[in-house]
Amino acid sequence: MIEPYLLRRGEHACLLIHGFVGDPGEMRDLGEHLAAANYTVLGIRLPGHTGQPEDLMPVRWGDWLAAAQHAFDRLASRYNPISVIGFSLGGALATLLAVRRPVHRLALLAMPYQLSGDWRVSLLGVARYVTPWFYLLAQADFSSPDLRASIWRRQPGLDLDDPAIQQMLRRSVKVSVAAADELRLALSAARQVLPQVQAPTLIMHGHNDMTADPTSAAAIAARIGSRYCELTYWPDTGHQLLLAGPHRQTIFRRIERFLNRN
Known about the structure:
Order of helices and strands: EEHEHEHEHEHHEHEHEH
CATH class: Alpha Beta
CATH architecture: 3-Layer(aba) Sandwich
Strand content: 15-25%
CATH topology: Rossmann fold
Distance between the termini: 36 Å
CATH superfamily: Alpha/Beta hydrolase fold, catalytic domain
Structural class: alpha/beta
Number of domains: 1
Number of strands: 9
Strand order of the largest sheet: 1-3-2-4-5-8-9
Largest sheet: 7 strands, mixed
């Protein structure tokens, strides 16, 4: 698991906020790219995201937002301007941050408009008090490039074609139902403030995203209050658009160009 990082370069700083059950490593390659372009980069770890599922159980979405605000304020004491780049859940937190802090540029990557799923999603608020765990990979397709890239980032070389390995992962990879409900609440809070966002915004999403419905990007763009909003969909790209897919480097350059616009 990659630790939080601060790459000190130029005066324009970028705060990178990772996704749900992720870690700073999800965005490290992007951070390295931006640092090479003379941006100072801070990649944080959200509370409870230690790799131990039990550590997420007591965390509330307000704790995630407070950590993002603290990180922004840390940068603001030394750097100006400050842009915020959020991936998935990190996009929702970046949106909420943009109405609380003077965000210079806002980039929302694979951000869900709402938590997708069947009727059980609407029952999370009750289920969290009844069922402790949701098994993330119970129905997983281990041929998915997105999934393989995400697992291999944490466990390089793991044989994902081995049925025994697949069965082990299906039974062991779990997330707190309470934490999933906090994700739902964070997305709901972000939807409510979208019209208040004024920072120039870049929204990007993969056409093949099986985690956050690709229609999310257009829904966010339609509601956001910013006068300048770029919306880009990437073909042959899933949810982990910073880790997998043929357009990773192009995506990095597109973000850099957006941050550099006048």
